Amino acid sequence: METYADLLTAIAPVSGKMRTILDPATGDAVGEAPVHDVADLERAVAAATAAQPAWAALGHEARSAALLRAADAVERSAESLAHLLSREQGKPLNGPNARFEVGACAAWLRTAAATELTAETVVDDGQTHAEIHYRPIGVVGAIGPWNWPMMITVWQVAPALRMGNAVVVKPSEYTPLSVLALIQVLNTELPEGLLSVVCGGRDVGARLAEHPAIGKIMFTGSTATGKAIIRSSADTVKRLTLELGGNDAGIVLPDADPKAIAEDLFWGAFINTGQTCAALKRLYVHDDIYDDVCAALTSVAAAMPMGVGLDETNVLGPLQNQQQYNIVARLVEAAKDSGARVLLGGNPTPEQPGYFYPTTLIADIEHNNPLVTEEQFGPALPIIRYSTVDEAVAMANALDVGLGASVWSADLDAARSVAARLQAGTVWINKHGAVDPRIPFGGAKQSGYGLEFGVEGLKALGVPQVING
Ligand code: NAD
């Protein structure tokens, strides 16, 4: 049987320089990643530029067929990919984690292949006939984060390839092996040079964003880096899709049933141990049911096992890196210092191996506490009390980010009318963070711009061209 080590042995260094990647749960070595530099990036861009015209000329049908074969290849290697992802990223195999992420890679490839995009006739009045077509951009740069490294790479790569582009991927420094292995599997079904990975740091990312041969950057990561990419890409007027940081609010209306929603609230906040862009990061609960929601959520959260990802019993894992651990620890300390009430967790044991931070719920916290206003990106949820819906909406909209939000209620109409008042790219009702390859996804405010997924996601990877006449 193929193992994740088999996938890694096939990854050849270009410059010869390698670095050891450590398991965030144990500190053990996972494998060696190549350290690429700007010269390696130039080679990848040249290969992509050479391979792209023939790929574009294949047409939608043949490109979709190749994506379907690539999805089959991911499914054949699913278990070894999931093991590698679990070891490098830290997320457990089980639960909505590593196996789920690899499954999502295949699902997004298949949907990108199956989604129809035809020319749109915008005027046809007997005198004028105008149509919009979407032509390939050329070579696309894909820059990604460390939280869902395989899935987000596929979110960027699948529509780009489907639309006739070549892609150069720059994974996060924290999770290069997962992306290298995934792309190696995809490349078993793709022409040489069309899709490649350059494992560098910020300098390589910045060069990709300013490179004159790159027509578009697909970026997922922090808002600060998104702003840097806007600046680097300005001189070449590059197209950008920016999926940036979030600090999603959830509002529980007074008619919700605390016990019925507790498990969905939990996973909305703690999926991938809280390291998810569109996770529920601040929960606003009406006074009438505040104590019941706190009690129901605490009982669900206390029962969720956290530990080493390869142990099948675990559904929560470590933070992926020390930096993220420190952010979570600092924000929880700030909340405790302010007098907020710890319902669960908040008591890390830094001497144990791995970046494990216990599942933490904090109640009776002020809406302007740093744990509420900053993105914690980890397993710590602040629960804020409110007494009027206007007050809850104002607090939810008070930040300068707006990726997702959610409203929880037994009354769908009431929930929809609150949803319409929230400044967020997606508002879920009685769930949070559910993404779907058929449904467009993108941010409002400083959570970014551009849509991914569905037909809108394909259009974003093409250059619109109007044929008038
Ligand atoms: P990050 O911004 O630190 O890094 C992301 C990528 O950008 C990495 O590959 C990094 O090497 C690269 N990079 C860094 N500086 C660069 C520069 N100047 N030019 C070009 N590239 C550069 O983000 P992260 O810490 O890996 O990810 C966590 C953040 O990502 C969180 O804020 C989270 O909310 C956000 N996120 C958003 C989404 C979404 O869909 N909106 C999804 C996942 C994560």
UniProtKB/TrEMBL annotation:
Keywords in alphabetical order: Oxidoreductase
Matches recorded under InterPro entries: Ald_DH/histidinol_DH (IPR016161), Ald_DH_C (IPR016163), Ald_DH_CS_CYS (IPR016160), Ald_DH_CS_GLU (IPR029510), Ald_DH_N (IPR016162), Aldehyde_DH_dom (IPR015590), LUC3-like (IPR044086)
Location of the Aldehyde dehydrogenase domain: 19-460
A Pfam family of this chain: Aldedh
Presence of the UniProt keyword Translocase in the record: no
GO MF entries: oxidoreductase activity, acting on the aldehyde or oxo group of donors, NAD or NADP as acceptor
Sequence similarity: Belongs to the aldehyde dehydrogenase family.
Protein name: Aldehyde dehydrogenase
